[in-house]
Every structure is written in C-alpha cells, then in structure tokens.
Task: inverse folding
C-alpha cells in the first residue's frame, strides 16, 4: 500500500507537469509574438505565513491548525517574454517555512529552511506601464536546515516533533499581482502567492501515524527587475 501511494503521487506529478506544458503551449500560440523578446532579471523578497496540514488531527493535535509561522522569503527572478501577454518566469528562492502551536502549556514553533525552484507561466494584461498578471506553475524545493523546534511540546509521543523524513518538496504555486514599468529604473512588481506542497514532511504509510503532513504558505513579494536587452518602446 505504501509503494502504491508513492507511485500515485509520482503519477500526479507527471500529470500536473504535462498539463502545465500543454497550457503554456496553447496560451503562447494564442498570443501575438513580440518583434523583440523581453528578457528581465532581478531580485525579490517578502514575508510568508506558513503552516502544515496534519491528518489525523486528534484533540491534542488541534492547536497545530490554529497558528501560522511567519518567516522570510527572497531570491532571484528571470523572466522571458516572447509573446505580448504571456511570459515564462523562473526563480531561485530561499524561504523560511514551518508551523506554530499554541497549547495550555505554552507555545511551540518549528522552522524549516528551503531552497526552491518555481517554474511559472506569467499571464499579464493592461497598459504598457501598468500591468496586472497571474502566475501559475509547479515548483520543487529542498529543506537545507531544520531547527528541530523550540518551545513546549504537547506530547513527546507525537511524531511531528521528530526530524523531518522527506526534505525534498514538490507542489504547485499560484500568484496574482501587478507591476509598473518605469522608463529608466527597471520594473517594480508586487505579488501575493499561495504555495501548496504535495510532498509530505513525514512518512504517510498505513503503518505510520499520519496520512497527510503537507506544508502550505501564503506570501507577499516585492520585486525589482531590469531588462537584460533594452529595446526602444
């Protein structure tokens, strides 16, 4: 049963990546091409509120769903636009994830440091200077450091206090925002993004305690991008 579950997750990953590729292709073909492609490179940073969906959620586990962990996020952004309203955005990010608990005996928090690689389809609309956009696509990540948790544990018998068993992460990212393209000072961008992980932090086999241990987070980003190859507008 455990192997079937992991095979099923792998199939879902393949299906999502295939659908994403088809969607990118169809969207790009439906858009008029730019005479000169736009290439942007820059940096972004912000804050994120993250948590973990644990199942089953027993009475002693309920406080986990009542608090979110506030952390930082940032990284590098590369965007290539060969069509008028469609672009591909690739990022290399560092993000702090985790979860927080509030219980009768005190507080507990767990900090996880991730390196992430999102591959996003960027659909934008609006004027030449001001444009709104949607970002959608898969992302993969790896937990490079786990602080082991700080604070009061509800029970030493609960396995979510143990070191995480699956540092590799994969999931889906979706964002919405707007940007302003200045004449001489680059492009300024604001985005709110939601990330959901399909990879669990702990084993979810029938013999294990959890059937689900999936991270998720909501983040707010500010970015500053420069056009790599300037063109006359």
Result:
């Amino acid at each position: 049963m455990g192997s079937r579950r992991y095979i099923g997750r792998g199939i879902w990953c393949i299906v999502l990546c295939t659908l994403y590729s088809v969607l990118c292709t169809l969207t790009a073909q439906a858009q008029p091409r730019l005479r000169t492609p736009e290439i942007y490179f820059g940096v972004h940073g912000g804050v994120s509120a993250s948590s973990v969906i644990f199942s089953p959620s027993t009475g002693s586990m309920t406080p986990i769903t009542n608090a979110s962990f506030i952390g930082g996020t940032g990284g590098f952004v590369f965007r290539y636009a060969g069509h008028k309203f469609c672009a591909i955005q690739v990022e290399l990010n560092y993000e702090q994830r985790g979860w927080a608990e509030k219980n009768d005996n005190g507080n507990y928090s767990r900090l996880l440091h991730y390196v992430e690689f999102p591959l996003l389809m960027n659909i934008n609309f609006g004027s030449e200077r001001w444009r709104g956009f949607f970002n959608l696509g898969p992302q993969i990540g790896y937990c490079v450091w786990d602080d082991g948790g700080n604070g009061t544990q509800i029970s030493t018998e609960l396995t979510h206090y143990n070191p995480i068993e699956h540092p590799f992460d994969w999931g889906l990212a979706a964002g919405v925002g707007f940007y302003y393209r200045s004449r001489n000072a680059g492009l300024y961008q604001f985005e709110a993004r939601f990330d959901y992980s399909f990879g669990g932090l702990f084993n979810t086999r029938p013999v294990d305690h959890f059937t689900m241990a999936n991270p998720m987070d909501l983040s707010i980003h500010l970015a500053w991008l420069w056009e790599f190859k300037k063109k006359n507008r």
